[in-house]
Amino acid sequence: xxxxxxxxxxxxxxxxxxxxxxxxxxxxxxxxxxxxxxxxxxxxxxxxxxxxxxxxxxxxxxxxxxxxxxxxxxxxxxxxxxxxxxxxxxxxxxxxxxxxxxxxxxxxxxxxxxxxxxxxxxxxxxxxxxxxxxxxxxxxxxxxxxxxxxxxxxxxxxxxxxxxxxxxxxxxxxxxxxxxxxxxxxxxxxxxxxxxxxxxxxxxxxxxxxxxxxxxxxxxxxxxxxxxxxxxxxxxxxxxxxxxxxxxxxxxxxx
Length: 255
Fold this sequence. Notes:
255 residues, Outer dense fiber protein 3-like, SHIPPO-rpt, 2 helices, CIMAP
């Protein structure tokens, strides 16, 4: 070992015995191991704090088999968690119409012609109106016939030239195509806040009440008759009128 260490020169350097341990003698992991990154959501470094991440995805395609109804089903406002709410009310149906069959009466039958079917009758000749004379000389004129057209796709005996048609723009694949096939926010009615939150006090404003209405009319001082006190006393006070005396009449002198 010493011979190899104390050998010939290798350039300007001669091999010698190392004084201590060097790091090259110990095997360590190379570039095949990498440190996880600190950005993103997947493969994040577990020793570092990860901030919330948000992703943007496209509209999901409609599934062939759905596990439940989606927003395309409209829920009626009267459907509650206890069932359908039906307010109390009385039903007023219409009057039941009794179907009647109109049958023929005695005057609808004619029994005069029934004898021909029962009894033997002689042959009878009938007289009809004179028919109009048939004109056998009428023939179609030259203007009755029309020649087939020579332009267009549907020709009779010649080959048609190519035809092109202009149709409207197809909605499939356009910028306004409805890929979700679901109703928008304006298709569903707004749910009242009282349905899922505590109901707040409500106040109403009525019309102004006219004077003398809304309350019972109370009697005034002139509506009472204070002279009738027979309910609490034997008799009401009363005044009388006597005869008029002459001032020249001698008064009665009594001792």
